[in-house]
Design goal:
Strand content: under 5%
Helix content: 55-70%
Number of helices: 15
Order of helices and strands: HEHHHHHHHHEHHHHHH
Radius of gyration: 21 Å
Distance between the termini: 22 Å
Oligomer: single chain
Strand order of the largest sheet: 1-2
Shape: globular
Structural class: mainly alpha
Largest sheet: 2 strands, antiparallel
Length: 369
């Protein structure tokens, strides 16, 4: 931490920027396995390899955002009312403004955003999910204040079991065939009239919230040597699960191009689901490494911290910048080079715009968070 009155947690600023850049990596690589109609389309074996590797390497982005929020906020140190008011200003108002921008920019019908985020701005799914965790925090905070290391470990262990569910569902299809209730393999109490199975309440992004809390409360700062000795093998295992699962599930064997309906792409992403085992392993590894980023000084105060403070606005607006860049560079550069160039340009441009918007008197923070 630095010594200012806000007791800022320095590594979280680095983490937010890294996670934000990783989001743009993912969105820059998606056009190499989705076509303009939203179908699965992989042009050749080289693209298949790079998509598997690059997407897997960046897949921890959203869980890292969740862990950053939990590490900073959970358990609550203020009343629930104050917490919700602050989160509304910080999260809801900028979200509503940029939702309106996307409605206008992409020609979305306003009614399309009444019940859910618009698919044309698919990255906005993150905000309602995060708000759901915020709603749960006041309920869980009294327990977290008193919970022992063993108790928290038990719930994290249960959560890691639920991270196997994408694979168990696939195994269910292979073993039992098409389920009698329909196309979705239901597990342990799930059925068409009940989506809340036995492990529902200890699954999802809730687990990342608990892991961040566990690390902050029970895991002391480790040396670089111990951190890397633990994190490198863990990240490698996560990458192997993610990239291997994606690459070897590509339909059609070695026959390219691969062109299948959208549902095939969803099935292909089984090992890349944000709350699956490989992503969880890589996320914990990266979080522990980034926790060591505590350097301050001129670069931190003039570049990292302002960019981190503007990172929510960067996230909200980046698709408006990224989409045309993909259209321009794709086909001009080799796949990995194109992904990196598009992600870097999108990140830099969006960050600069967000920082400038935050400087607008009175309303700047309502626009860019």
């Amino acid at each position: 931490m630095n010594n200012d009155k806000n007791k800022r947690i320095v590594f979280l600023d680095y983490l937010r920027l890294i996670a934000c850049f990783m989001v743009m990596i993912i969105h820059a690589v998606e056009p190499y396995y989705f076509n303009q109609n939203g179908d699965l389309y992989i042009a050749n074996k080289c693209d298949a390899f790079w998509v598997a590797v690059i997407d897997s390497a960046a897949r921890s982005c959203v869980p890292l955002f969740v862990m950053a929020s939990s590490f900073l906020l959970f358990p609550l140190r203020i009343t629930a009312g104050d917490f919700f008011r602050r989160r509304a200003v910080r999260i809801l108002i900028p979200f509503a403004i940029w939702l309106g921008v996307y409605v206008w920019h992409f020609g979305i019908k306003p009614l399309d955003v009444v019940f859910n985020f618009p698919m044309a701005a698919g990255h906005l799914w993150f905000v309602p999910m995060l708000l759901g965790l915020y709603i749960a925090m006041p309920l869980l905070s009294p327990w977290a204040e008193k919970a022992s290391k063993r108790e928290v470990s038990l719930f994290i262990g249960l959560w890691f079991f639920t991270s196997l569910f994408p694979f168990i569902r696939r195994l269910s299809l292979i073993t039992l065939g098409e389920p009698s209730f329909g196309a979705v393999p239901f597990l342990w109490g799930e059925c068409p009239w009940n989506g809340f199975g036995a492990f529902y309440y200890v699954s999802g992004f809730f687990g990342y919230m608990l892991i961040a809390f566990y690390i902050r409360k029970f895991v002391p700062a480790l040396s670089w040597a111990k951190t890397m000795a633990f994190s490198i093998p863990l990240f490698a295992v996560g990458m192997a699960i993610m990239a291997g699962g994606f690459y070897f599930l590509i339909p059609g064997g070695d026959t390219y191009p691969v062109h299948e309906p959208y549902g095939a792409a969803v099935r292909l992403e089984m090992s890349l689901e944000y709350c699956s085992l490989g992503v969880a392993a890589a996320t914990v590894a990266l979080f522990l490494v980034i926790r060591k980023f505590t350097a301050e000084g001129w670069f931190y105060n003039r570049i990292i911290r302002p960019a981190s403070e503007a990172s929510y606005g960067t996230y909200l607006m980046h698709m408006i910048v990224l989409a045309p860049l993909v259209g321009y560079f794709k086909g001009m550069l080799p796949t990995p080079a194109c992904v990196v160039v598009v992600a870097v340009c999108s990140f830099v441009v969006s960050t600069i715009i967000s920082c400038l918007l935050r400087k607008i008197p009175v309303i700047g923070k309502f626009i860019a968070g």
